[in-house]
Amino acid sequence: MNTITVPLQDRSYDVVIGSDLLQNMQSLVQQVHRATEYFFVLDQNIETTHGQCAANSFSGGVKSFVLQAIESNKTMQSVESIWDAMLKEGYDRHGIVVALGGGLTGDVAGFAAATYLRGVPVVQVPTTLLAMVDASIGGKTGINVPIAQKDGGVLLGKNLAGSFWQPALVIADVSTLKTLDDRQLRCGLAECVKHGMLGHQDVITFIQEQNEGIFARDVDILLSLVSQSVAIKANVVAQDEREQGQRALLNLGHTFAHAIEPMSALHLFHGEAVSIGLCAACSCSEALGLIDAEYSDNIRTLLTGIGLPTRLPMPIQLEDAMVLMVKDKKAVRSQIRLVLPTQDGAAVVDDIDEGAIALAWASVGATS
C-alpha cells in the first residue's frame, strides 16, 4: 500500500493506494474523520458490487443515493436530488459524503458536499483508472451547464459550474479495476499519458513497456502506474491549489477535448476526447514551433498502441468546435487559451493565431 500526501496546510489529505481496500473502508475513513453518519453517492454501475462491499465495511449501515453516471446527469438537477435525499435523512454537518464510482460521480458528489449546509466533508473513492489518477485528486468539483446553440439545440458546457472542495481522504483500490472494461481503462491511460507529457518521460516509458500488464490488471503494475500519476498531480496541486498558474498545465489537450466531448453524435468518453485533444494540441504546438514532428508522431503512436483514438470518429464543423472552445472555462475575455506541449513539458499559450488552431482541428478530422 502506498500513501501520497497532498500538502495544502490545513486542507492537506492523503491518497491511499492499495489492493482490497474497500473491505476496510470504515477504518481508513475514521482515521481522518470521526463522522457519526455516512452518506454514499454511488455510481449505478457499481452499486451492487464495489458499492455493496464498501457499505458492508461500515457498522450500522449507511444511507445512499444512486447516480446514473452519464454526462447528461452531471447537472444541477442531480446535485439538488442529492441535497434533497440528505435533508430527508436528516444529515447535518457531523455527517460525511462518500463518493464511490468514476470521475463523474466524484465531481457531482463533491459539488453537493461543498454546497450542502455550506460544506460537509467528502471522501473520494474512485473505482476507475481515470478517477484514480485525475478526477479524485485536487478538489475540483463541478457540473455541466446548458449552452444554447444557433440551431435551437442545447449542449452541456463541460464543468462550467463548480467549486474547489478538497476531500478529507482519497481511497484508490486498484482491485476495482479488475471489473473495469478495457474502454474505460484506456480512458484513464489517456490522463496518464497527459501526466507523462508534463515532463515525466518515465511515465511514458512505463506505459509503453508495461502495456500488456496494465490490460492484464496486474496489481503491482497498476499500483505503480496509479502511484506515479497521483504523485505528479499531487505535486502540481500543492503548488497551485486554485489553478492560478502551474495547475493549468494539467489541462493539456482538454480545451480541444471539452469542445468535442459534449457532441452526442461522436459518442466519445472523456478519456477518448482527451486523447484526440492531445493529438490536436500536438499539431497546434508543432505549427507554432514548440515541438517537432517526431514528438507528435511518438505521442500518436503511443496513443494508438493503447487503443485510443487519435482522430474524430466522424467529421465536425470547425465553427462549432471554435464556439465551444471560446466558452471553455480557461478562456480569457472570450479569447482562447491553450495548454500546449513543449519538448520538455507544457506551457500555457495565449493569443494563438486562429490558423494554427484551425490546422490543429483539421489534423484530427474537423472540416471548415
In terms of topology, how is this protein built?
Layout: E1 2-6, E2 13-18, H1 25-30, E3 37-43, H2 50-56, E4 63-67, H3 76-88, E5 95-101, H4 103-115, E6 122-126, H5 129-135, E7 140-148, E8 154-164, E9 169-173, H6 182-196, H7 201-209, H8 211-215, H9 219-239, H10 254-260, H11 270-287, H12 293-306, H13 318-327, E10 338-342, E11 345-349, H14 354-363
Parallel strand pairs: 2-9, 3-4, 3-5, 5-6, 6-9
Antiparallel strand pairs: 1-2, 7-8, 10-11
Keywords:
368 residues; Rossmann fold; two-stranded antiparallel ribbon; Dehydroquinate synthase-like, alpha domain; alpha/beta; single chain; 2 domains; seven-stranded mixed sheet
Overall description:
With 368 residues, this protein is α/β, with parallel strands linked by helices. It has 2 domains: 2-185 and 217-231, Rossmann fold (3-Layer(aba) Sandwich), CATH 3.40.50; 252-363, Dehydroquinate synthase-like - alpha domain (Dehydroquinate synthase-like, alpha domain), CATH 1.20.1090.10. The protein has 14 helices and 11 strands. Helix 3 (76-88) packs across helix 4 (103-115), helix 5 (129-135) runs parallel beside helix 6 (182-196) and helix 11 (270-287) crosses helix 14 (354-363). The radius of gyration is 20 Å and the shape is globular. The model has no long low-confidence stretch (mean pLDDT 92).
